[in-house]
Amino acid sequence: MKFFLDTANVDEITELASTGLVDGITTNPSLIAASGRNMIEVIKEITGLVDGPVSAEVTATDYDNMVAEGRLLKQIAKNVAVKVPLTFDGLKACKTLADEGTSVNVTLCFSATQALLAAKAGATFISPFAGRLDDIGGVGMELISDIIEVYSNYDFKTEVLVASVRGPLHVLQAARMGADIATVPAAVIKALYKHPLTDKGLEAFISDWEKTGQSILEK
Ligand code: G3P
Question: Domain residue spans in the chain?
């Protein structure tokens, strides 16, 4: 499974991209606003921090301006993926941009039928928001399962990009279902590797090693 970081914070991206485990970045208008930066400038900077896709979302809601914004965003860098919302105009814009060879991430997906239409529109990625369904008492990961099942019945090339991830359990469930990508906040990435038994075990190893008086590096 690929891991994308869901952030427009360049410090978070720089820190975690250094692990070599970050396969891409997703942003949205709220994350751009939280960065306090000019959108074009921060997307340009982010595209230089990772080799993988960097999702930059249009803010227009009508077809003509979505396409115009998408064409402009695509010019920022070769690894920009244009994000459009799953609306009637968003699907039309996805089809137009995809037919032009633009990588399109269709976002704000909350049903498998929406995801089916996005795949037919040529989406490169579909972003179902698992966490936001959980937030209203739904079962977000059932949506992911439904989309994977629907897509597996056809030769769609659209990758399932699990979004609105609230913690390691979502990541585990997504991986068990065979989702292509999970886009996660920096804190969730860090929660994936932290375990108290690992820390406790390492502490014991180092303590016992120090009693030997040896050093691997010293001659
Ligand atoms: O960026 C898309 C999605 O991951 C946002 O998730 O946490 O705002 O529900 P969230």
Answer: 2-194
Q: Distance, CA 201 to ligand 1 centroid (Å)?
A: 35
For residue range 66-86, list pLDDT tens digits in order.
999 999 999 999 999 999 999
Q: Mutate which of 129, 141, 165, 184 to test ligand 1's pocket (most atoms within 8 Å of Cβ)?
A: 129
Q: Say if domain 2-194 classifies as CATH 3.40.50.970.
A: no
pLDDT of residue 155: 85
Q: What is the mean pLDDT of residues 167-173?
A: 98
Residue 200: its pLDDT value, please? 98
Phi first, then psi: give them for residue 30, nearest 5 degrees: -70, -40
Q: For 25-37, what is the mean pLDDT?
A: 98
Write b or e for each residue in 34-70: b if 16 or more Cβ atoms lie within 10 A of its Cβ, otherwise e: ebebebeebbebbbebbebbbbbbbebeebeebbebb
Residues annotated as catalytic (active site), given as ranges:
83
